[in-house]
Write a structure and sequence with these properties.
globular, alpha/beta, 5 helices
């Protein structure tokens, strides 16, 4: 079985480390980016089976990440989970319209997060 790769994009080092710990323990390879610009660069150079992105970030926000992933033919089908403190219905709908696969509100439950990744990566 090939190890699946998850790209996490969040400006918070603590959040990236928490995601890394949960996903590595579940058997995933994890790539990390501090903002959307770096995230899209890593996705282009290394690829990923799943992208987890925050919404509120410097340089390029989560909506820009979703649009950037969906605009790239080689990553158009990559599942994107939004992980954010935002619970605003309008933002959730905007992310869904842009092409997000799912929405998880922080603080996250590591078991539920890994279950969500498993579901979309299957």
């Amino acid at each position: 079985m090939t190890t699946k790769t998850v790209l996490t994009i969040d400006e918070s080092r603590t959040m990236r480390e928490m995601l890394n710990m949960a996903l590595v323990q579940a058997g995933y390879r994890v790539l990390q980016a501090v903002d959307g610009v770096e995230g899209l660069e890593i996705l282009q150079s290394e690829g990923a089976d799943v992208v987890i992105t925050d919404i509120n970030m410097p340089r390029l926000d989560g909506f820009g990440v979703i649009e950037g992933v969906r605009a790239n033919p080689s990553h158009r089908g990559t599942p994107i989970l939004v992980l954010t403190t935002e619970s605003d219905v309008a933002k959730k709908e905007r992310a869904r319209q842009a092409g997000a696969t799912g929405w998880i509100v922080k603080p996250f439950n590591p078991v539920k997060l890994v279950d969500a990744v498993r579901r979309v990566a299957a």
